[in-house]
């Protein structure tokens, strides 16, 4: 199965915002996100990427259908919930590129698309002079959570092989409704960072 990987920028993302929302709602319904998709939240979330001058969306196409997507933008243009922990810890936000989600439909996994998402986002990040850190965050869940699938393989090793190191001291807080809850609850997401040689 060969997929076409396309890098879209800023305003080009508008045409794909419904695809991104669809993929986020479908893929993040599963463990560990358990996100009970909210179309209104998605509109506001995607607005950040559409409005940002230097955002990118990497889209994976099977024919003319988007089956995977991954986003990134300078930390200076990211939402406060992501930038604030770095500012509080004394990081220079100008040197950081923030990676949003990677979401790929199940039948397309394990063929290198997730690796491409990292390569494409890092390449986009490093076109910006002064960027030498790329970072993303991932939700923390208790290992004894009742909805954790027995056969779930965490992505930690996959991320480690991409050169990312977990920074437990850097956390973002988000709220969303889990599929087994009737209201939004607080979530803690830990950041993973990769340092690049300054250009
Ligand atoms: C994260 C996610 C996008 C990864 O996508 P993926 O396409 O399955 O990942 P890949 O196939 O690129 O990589 C998985 C492994 O297969 C390997 N692989 C298989 N075929 C490959 C190929 N043709 N080329 C390169 N690598 C290949 C990769 O090297 C990797 O192994 P490694 O870590 O030992 O190097 C996908 O699992 C997903 O959507 N998960 C749910 C959402 C989520 O949790 N997202 C992350 C937080 S936002």
Summarize the structure in words.
There is one protein chain. This protein has a single domain (4-195), classed as Gcn5-related N-acetyltransferase (GNAT) (Aminopeptidase). It has five helices and seven strands. It has helices at 17-27, 39-51, 80-88, 113-125, 156-161, and strands at 4-9, 56-62, 65-74, 96-104, 133-139, 165-177, 184-195. It has a seven-stranded mixed sheet with strand order 1-2-3-4-5-7-6, sandwiched between helices. Helix 1 crosses helix 2 (39-51). The longest helix is centred in the first third of the chain and has 13 residues, at 39-51. It binds coenzyme A. Coenzyme A binds next to strand 4, helix 4 and helix 5.
Helix content: 25-40%
Radius of gyration: 16 Å
**Relevant CATH superfamily:** Gcn5-related N-acetyltransferase (GNAT)
Proportion of residues in extended strands: 25-35%
Low-confidence stretches: none
Mean pLDDT: 96
Instruction: For the record, give the distance between the C-alpha atoms at the N and C termini, rounded to a whole number.
Output: 36 Å
Overall tally of structural domains: 1
Task: Please report the first level of CATH classification, the CATH class.
Answer: Alpha Beta
What is the number of strand segments? Answer: 7
Overall shape: it is globular
Each distinct ligand: coenzyme A
């Amino acid at each position: 199965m060969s997929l076409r990987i396309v890098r879209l920028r800023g305003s080009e993302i508008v045409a794909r915002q419904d695809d991104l929302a669809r993929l986020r709602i479908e893929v993040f319904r599963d463990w560990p996100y358990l996100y009970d998709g909210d179309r209104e939240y998605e509109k506001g979330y995607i607005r950040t990427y559409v409005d940002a001058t230097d955002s990118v969306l990497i889209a994976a196409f099977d024919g003319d259908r988007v089956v995977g997507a991954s986003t990134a933008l300078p930390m200076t243009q990211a939402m406060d919930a992501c930038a604030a922990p770095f500012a509080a810890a004394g990081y220079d936000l100008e040197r950081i590129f923030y990676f949003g989600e990677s979401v790929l439909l199940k039948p397309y996994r394990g063929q290198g698309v997730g690796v491409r998402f990292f390569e494409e986002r890092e390449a986009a990040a490093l076109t910006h002079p002064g960027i030498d850190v790329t970072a993303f965050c991932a939700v923390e869940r208790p290992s004894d959570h009742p909805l954790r699938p027995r056969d779930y393989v965490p992505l930690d090793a996959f991320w480690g092989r991409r050169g990312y190191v977990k920074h437990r001291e850097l956390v973002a807080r988000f709220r969303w409704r889990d599929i087994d809850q009737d209201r939004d609850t607080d979530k803690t997401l830990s950041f993973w960072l990769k340092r690049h040689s300054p250009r």
